[in-house]
Amino acid sequence: MKIFEPFTMKTLVLKNRITRAPMFVGYARPDGTPGPLMLEHYGKIAGSGVAMVVVENIAIDAQGMGSPFMLRADNDSYLEGLSQLCDSIKSQGALAFAQINHAGRYAYLPERVAPSPVETGKVVPRELTRDEIEKIINSFASAAKRIKDAGFDGVELHGGTGYLLVQFLSSRTNHRTDEYGGDLTNRMRFPLRVVEAVLEEVGNDFPVGYRFLADELLPDGLHLDETKVFAGELAEREVTYLSVTAGTYDSFFLPEYKEKEKEQGYMVPYAEEIKKSVPNTPIIAAGRIQTPEFASRIIDQGKTDLVGLARVLFADPLWPKKAMGEVKDAIVPCEPSCSLCLQRVMKGKPAYCSQWSKEQRERFLKTAGQKDSKGA
Ligand SMILES: Cc1cc2nc3c(=O)[nH]c(=O)nc-3n(C[C@H](O)[C@H](O)[C@H](O)COP(=O)(O)O)c2cc1C
Predict the structure, then answer these.
(1) Fewest Cβ atoms closer than 10 Å to its Cβ: which of 95, 233, 234, 369?
(2) C-alpha radius of gyration, the chain, whole number
(3) Whose CA is nearest to atom 1 of ligand 1?
(4) How far apart are CA 273 and CA 170, in angstroms?
């Protein structure tokens, strides 16, 4: 079966087609470093049999943090922790990628910056100056270099979920009148400059993936007509892969999104469309890929090259081994009507899964409780 066959991506050979999509779990210490809880979590995820783990979004600067319990990569003091995190993944036989991000208008601090002052959650962000834009581009490049220096196999730029890279691309959130706003060419300028600066800093041989937003799922938002053009620009710059998503925090809580995301493979049609438009760029499809049969089928049908599992793997870290027949038990599915993990991280609490056994949940809460009191 193709899903269990190796896949070559730039300089890397993935042992199969199953990857772990980035999933913020809120386990970082308040100082932005990984503690034992996080190292253990990533070791377990990496030991699941996935070919590659993408570490959840890591802040490129303090103003761009989406949560106080977020990993940071904005200065060299974070290198040691990032190296430990990387080792916890690689020692389990998986490739290690790390996602870097600036949350822009979705940052958690009340004083936020964005392309334009478009209100979010009763906060109006301040418009970035051109000098600040230059600094953020440099911060992306420096953070990417730290990810490389920490030993990771590649870096992923967070161009999904409606964070800063998307905020520039979308005419909903970018009302600028300078060279960064207006038509699509201008709105693509900031994310493309980030990609170029990162590639220059890490070198063209180092894998740079892109979490890609194909559609904002909002009437006045980004749609495939524009994002396909953007995908072409990224492909021209030889990004290592596009990990395709749909929706942002402005659409995630709409009733139609909540219904849609209960369906198996709800974002796969977007991955398929992007795959058609950039056939030579590896594509990762995510979005409730609950069963190995479904994952295998979409790969065989050429809709995607790889699958990315987030909540699905959180619910059952034995998913890949069970799929391969190495473990005989049935897969424990992520419950479609449950959003406990997301609700917890949005409240600033460490995530756990309602599908875990009672014993596992109790053990987790005890350890996470120690995290709260002792900073572990
Ligand atoms: C709690 C939570 C945290 C997430 N964190 C990230 C993240 O840090 N970066 C990212 O690109 N996507 C993030 N995602 C989106 C996932 O990568 C994935 O695309 C989505 O959850 C669909 O896949 P799934 O059904 O297997 O969870 C997150 C999703 C959830 C539920």
Answers:
(1) 369
(2) 19
(3) 342
(4) 19
Residue 102 CA to ligand 1 centre (angstroms)? 16
211 lines ligand 1 (CB under 6 A): yes
CA 345 to chain centre: 15
Structure tokens at 79: 């290198």
Amino acid present at 366: K
Q: What is the pLDDT of residue 228?
A: 98
Give me 198's structure tokens.
């990162």
CA torsion angle 312 27 207 205 (round to 10): -160
Q: Which two tokens stand for residue 157?
A: 């730029």
How far apart (Å, rounded) are the C-alpha atoms in residues 57 and 65?
9
Ligand 1 centre to CA of 262 (Å) is 14
pLDDT for 369: 78
pLDDT (0 to 100) of residue 354: 96
Catalytic residue among 163, 180, 241, 352: 163
Tell me, yes or no, if 163 is annotated catalytic.
yes
- Per-residue confidence (pLDDT) for residue 121, from 0 to 100: 86
Domains, in order of start, for the chain: 2-336 (3.20.20.70)
The answer to whether 356 and 362 have CB atoms below 8 angstroms apart is: no
* Full 3-state SS string of the chain: CHHHCCEEECCEEECCCEEECCCCCCCCCCCCCCCHHHHHHHHHHHCCCCCEEEEEEEECCHHHCCCCCCCECCCHHHHHHHHHHHHHHHCCCCEEEEEEECCHHHCCCCCCEECCCCCECCECCEECCHHHHHHHHHHHHHHHHHHHHCCCCEEEEEECECCHHHHHHCCCCCCCCCCCCCCHHHHHHHHHHHHHHHHHHHCCCCCEEEEEEEECCCCCCCCHHHHHHHHHHHHHCCCCCEEEEECECCCCCCHHHHHHCCCCCCCHHHHHHHHHHCCCCCEEEECCCCCHHHHHHHHHCCCCCEEEECHHHHHCCCHHHHHCCCCCCCCCCCCCCCCHHHHHHHCCCCCCCCCCCHHHHHHHHHHHHHHHHHCC
Mean pLDDT over the full length of the chain: 96
Ligand 1 and 310: CB distance under 6 A: yes
Give residue 372's pLDDT. 41
